[in-house]
Amino acid sequence: MSTHSLRSFLRIFAFSFITILLFSSCEKEPGDGGLATIKGKVLSYRFDNDGVLVDSGYVGDVRVFISYGDNTWVDDDARTSYTGEYAFEWLQKGAYKIWVISDCPSCPENQQQDVLDVTVDERKETIDARDLKFYKD
Question: I need a surface site. Which of 30, 41, 49, 83 has the fewest CB within 10 A?
Answer without folding.
Answer: 49
